[in-house]
């Protein structure tokens, strides 16, 4: 009966707007019902912890933990309903002749060459033969070889190791050819994914790390959504302390079509100045809260952002630094992180999946490239 009473009180708290404040996925603040301050409710490896006396001294599941669990369950149901899933399907081929536009076409055998097989078509109106290879027209190598190279490279292999792995599959290319593929298709996909609006959460994280560009130290500023781990925006800066982070925040707002309720950064002054310009408002109800006094543990940490930094650092070690400031590598890795790579913290989903963007097909690189090509041709 006592447990049911705590659950009932927790339900009452969860139903009252403004009683629970979400700091991050693992941290909440719950107002005391008697009006004497707030209690911290944190998710730990051993379960939920609350700073209230009931949980601290009796070691029971208090009403504040019940409230957070019930509130989280409600929010998840709302999020599922809110997400208007964007499904990106693989494109098997076109239904019209590339010469006269007729839809009266037939398959007419397969063209064999040393780089793979390509389906041939014949148009019954104009009588012309043609092939359809969306996204890979005039490429000597087949789509499987090119997308395999991209997967190997962004999974952590160097250009030369990618080249050697492709040779085991019978694909003879140089490391420069691999780089040319990456440069071409990253540029194509970048234009396409920038038109997709991800359904990110209300808490964003920003951080910076140094990278070497032609041996010179630069700083990569990155913005990530806390809930879905979607890498929202990035930019490379010459300096750390004098950099204007406002552009990063503006890119984030443009990419998502919203502003966050909470922004988590370190104590870098550049973030505070940019926050005041881009997010601060006189109206407290619409104002973004800026948390900049971060710690290693507890409700004020930037651990998720540090994990992203670790991914980038591991990739940079293989590269031994970037050759250009506008290198396609960072943009390509952002696409790989968001749309291709499954994350353990998201239970095997990609950040795009968590944002309601479904990339169908076994080869997500292929699906993205095909759809990016069609989108470009329509424009």
Explain what the structure shows.
This protein is of the alpha+beta class. Among the domains are: 81 residues, no CATH class; 42 residues, N-terminal domain of TfIIb, CATH 2.20.25; 121 residues, 2-Layer Sandwich (Nucleotidyltransferase, domain 5). Helix content is 40%, strand content 21%. The chain contains 12 helices and 14 strands. It is elongated.
What is this structure, in a nutshell?
By secondary structure, this protein is of the alpha+beta class.
Please give the number of β-strands. Answer: 14
**SSE sequence, one letter per element:** HEEEEHHEEEEHHHEEEHEHEHHHEH
Question: Average pLDDT across residues?
Answer: 85
How many H/I helical runs? 12
Query: Which regions have little confidence, pLDDT < 50, spanning 5+ residues?
Result: none
* First and last CA, distance: 65 Å
Quick one: CATH superfamily of the domain at 203-323?
Answer: Ribonuclease H-like superfamily/Ribonuclease H
CATH-assigned fold name of the domain at 203-323 = Nucleotidyltransferase, domain 5
Strand order of the largest sheet: 11-10-9-12-13
Shape: elongated
Which percent range fits the helix content? 25-40%
CATH architecture of the domain at 203-323: 2-Layer Sandwich
The quaternary state of the protein chains shown equals single chain
What share of residues are in beta strands? 15-25%
User: What is the CATH class name of the domain at 203-323?
Assistant: Alpha Beta
Radius of gyration, CA atoms, in whole angstroms: 25 Å
Structural class: alpha+beta
The largest pleated sheet is described as:
5 strands, mixed
